[in-house]
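Following up on my earlier thread - several people asked me to post the actual chain instead of describing it. Fair enough. Here it is, all 141 residues.
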Amino acid sequence: MKKLIALALIGLFATSAAVFASPDKDTLVAAEKNAWQNLKDKKWDDFKKVFSSDFKGVYSSGITTMDQENAEVKTLDLKSFTLGDIDVVMIDKDAALLTYSAKVEGTEGGKDASGKMNVASVWKKEGNDWRLVYHTDVKAE
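Reply from S.P.:
Thanks for posting it. Predicted structure:
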């Protein structure tokens, strides 16, 4: 009987792991990369579409809302970016945390903003779409 219960639990955990190792991880990584590409290409309308209405950004300059974020990014002139070490942690089936490094070359408000950053984003599912609800980045030392 104990063996049967153990096998049933293993099956349950394997099924749960399969749910959280879903294609959503690939979708989220692609969405994050696409957001960066839209910044680089200055496709502001496409960039704005990824945000949840309750978005918050946390940076050394302050905390932003969706509207503030979309206004501030227009001061960016992103020449290049490389995202690395992307890790996706499924918080539950409708929420995910992405952490990664970003190497950027460009300016913000006319000042050099090039360098390596450590980045985190939280995405949540709204209907059938994933939306960005939180983002932060800090210059790596």
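The mean pLDDT is 87. That should answer part of your original question.
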